[in-house]
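Side project, low priority. Logging it here so it doesn't get lost.
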Amino acid sequence: MQFSSLVSVRHRFAVGRPLPFNVRNADHTLLLARGQVIANDDQLEALFLRGCLVDLAELRSPQELIEAAPPQELPRLWHQCLDRVGNTLQNCQGEGFAGALDEVSGPVQALIERDSDLAIFQVLRQDGNEHTQYGVRHSIHTAITAFLVAQRLGWDAASVQKVFKVALTMNVSMLELQGQLAMQATPVTPEQRELIYTHPQRSVEMLQLAGIGDEDWLRGVLHHHVASDGSGYPAGVHDVNDYAALVRRADIYTAKLSPRTTRDAMAADRAGRAMFMHDPGNSMTAALVKEFGVYPPGCYVKLVSGETAIVVKRGASVITPLVAAITTPAGLPLKEPVPRDTAKREHAIAGVVGDKAVSVKLPPEKLVALALG
């Protein structure tokens, strides 16, 4: 461990507020744990005189730690950071929500920027379709998608970060209902339909009660189901901001990729084609389809060799991604996945394979390890 004097980092904390790091005695033993409060200036001065220290590693922000993390640590960081986002969304009551959302959003955004292929992989290899998790996971996948597309469109950093939060919070009032609907084999009831139609307004009200007053953010949530022609809900709206417009498209696209009890997930190439055909000429839709490509990381493909493979990274062109074969041409599982270059004729992609048609199921940690290359 490397240490710095407490006095040298005086600008990193404040009297009366929880400490963002541990404070140690001169002999490195723990004196005050992270989260404890220095009550007054006299106590602070006593700590300075005592020669208290801070571990330099604890001074680095989560984003800095992610930037410096070795590649093999990224799967653990993704899992950890997404869990924190999910817990925050499920506890969105109170005025501390905005600060908590900032705290958990930053690391996920840093992970997206660290490796965008691995970010797309998170969206395609969707876990967490359980009753209590589907709604949370869908909001997170929509937020990742919106963030990537906003960057491709050249939005400034503040707008990219804001559209991420709009997507995360668009459904805070119906996360549990989304889980129910994902597993429900019977038609939507009138009561459920009413909750669906009113969820944008109810989500806005929840955010306002949590102390969020950003009008662009709130309008983005309120109008994320309004189409450019005014259809959708709330009815009668024709003027939607860019946040709502982009989140609506990211929401639709990621929903197509999500399996439900009543239908399988749509293949990635078909999902992109459906988006483009339904919304031709729109720059946001075009950017989304280009960002994910025909064969995005995480989708299964059949090679002309007969092997089944999983896409691990985007390649030099949209039709030549890097893949890892997981079966022999006869369909037998390989002991270990084998990298294949789809730019070579003998390993070209013949088509996308649906998840249910893939007999070899690799554990999530091995899938993510493949995406790291």
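Brief comment: The mean pLDDT is 90.
Revisit when time allows.
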